[in-house]
Design goal:
about 20% helix; binds ligand ISJ; chorismate lyase activity; alpha+beta
Length: about 160
């Protein structure tokens, strides 16, 4: 991975904040693609340390600059850990903006992939995921960086 991409992929602060800063005059928005309750993918269950037959809340979004998707993200949290957190009510507000305001937020190590996201038909250059913990809440956030972002920021393709 080139150092340009490493800076994005290995960052552990808010990706929302980084995209807004990098976007300059472009307008940042979150497009809600899908939100549902269902079973996790097997590898998501493993990453969360739960049984694959436990219900999870799933949220899939595109993070856009001037309406063009730069990142797609899928976040998954076991229903049992969501109690009291009205995350489903976020709509098109960024999950990251909420998350990084929470005191005592713990982020587990990042995992990186060059596989395509399975939840949406989109090319991706790099993907990454990590589990956030906040009180009872366990939230697996998976983010995939799209070629449009590389084009707009003049980043190399890998
Ligand atoms: C975790 C963050 O939240 C971002 C916003 C998301 C959303 O609104 O669903 C999902 C994943 C992230 O790309 C972040 O900003 O770092």
């Amino acid at each position: 991975m080139s150092p340009h991409w490493w800076r994005w992929v290995a960052s552990t602060d808010s990706l929302t904040a980084r995209l807004i800063a990098a976007g300059g005059a472009r307008r940042f928005s979150v497009r809600l693609l899908r939100q549902r309750v269902g079973y996790p993918f097997a590898d998501e269950a493993r990453a969360l340390g739960i049984d694959a037959k436990r219900y999870v809340w799933q949220r899939e979004v595109a993070l856009c600059l001037d309406g063009s998707p730069w990142v797609v993200a899928r976040s998954v949290a076991p229903l049992a850990t969501l109690r009291g957190q009205r995350l489903y009510a976020l709509g098109e507000r960024s999950l990251g903006s909420w998350l990084f305001r929470q005191p005592g937020l713990d982020r587990r190590p990042l995992e990186v992939t060059d596989n395509l996201p399975r939840f949406i038909a989109a090319d991706s250059l790099w993907g990454r995921r990590s589990v956030f913990r906040h009180g009872r809440l366990a939230l697996l956030v998976q983010e995939y960086f799209l070629p449009a972002m590389a084009d707009e920021l003049g980043l190399p393709s890998r």
